Amino acid sequence: MPHNLTIIHSLLLFSTAFIAGGLNAVAGGGSFITFPTLIFTGMPPITANATNNTALWIAAVASAGAYRRDLSIERRELLVLAAISLVGGVIGSVALLYTSPDVFKKLLPYLLLSATLIFTFSEPLKKWLQLQSKNSSSESPPLFILSLAQLAIAIYGGFFGAGLGILMLATLTFLGIKNIHAMNAFKAFLGSCINGIAIIPFMVAGLIVWHQAILMAVGGSLGGYLCANYSRKLDPGLVRKFVMVVAFSMTTYFFLHQN
């Protein structure tokens, strides 16, 4: 058993990663569970962020594989946005490396709050974006505008990542994607690009705690793959309500324990 990884912590990390993988496959928001769990087990916030990113990246790849049949988009747009996601993920992760632990700890409650608000209002935002897209005279905005938006989203994802999938829904809507399963497939693919490339700077800096990351990766992959296959039988509304309760609870906790 690795140092500081007790049996209780192991079971806790595995089970929360399994749940998070399922949440990410259906509605998003899995980091609201796994990231605080790593901190509660005694891991410093920046290290927890890097380890959490690494663990859930494999789960995102598993979800992308389960949704692969729903991934239908023009090859040119897919390649451009994938490349932009890789660049932004590197920028965000390197920015995290140059952020002091004290500054990140002070930013953490606000990062969680922003991600929580993004998740909470994602459905009204998605409906508004779809309405704007439907009323627009053009089929889709210029790819350059979409690339800038995806770059900003990818930088945020490389730096922190919670709520990343929700932010990408705006890009998907402007691309004219209406099918929820196609949106989940595209979101999982681009998310795996962002989180995957961010691992490289984290590895170089030695931030990843591999025992915890591998344990959570196994749990998250199982949860993500199984729930991606059975997501059509789940009620996304109930899942979203559960995630919102957890997200607001975690945000409140970190604001109260900011010092």
UniProtKB/TrEMBL annotation:
The lineage of its organism: Bacteria, Bacillati, Cyanobacteriota, Cyanophyceae, Nostocales. It holds the Pfam family TauE. Its main location: membrane. It comes from Anabaena lutea FACHB-196. It is a multi-pass membrane protein. This is Probable membrane transporter protein. InterPro entries: TM_pro_TauE-like, TSUP. It is found in: Cell membrane. Keywords: Cell membrane, Membrane, Transmembrane, Transmembrane helix, Transport. It comes from the Bacteria. Belongs to the 4-toluene sulfonate uptake permease (TSUP) (TC 2.A.102) family. The chain crosses the membrane at residues 12-35, 78-98, 144-177, 189-208, 214-231, 238-256.
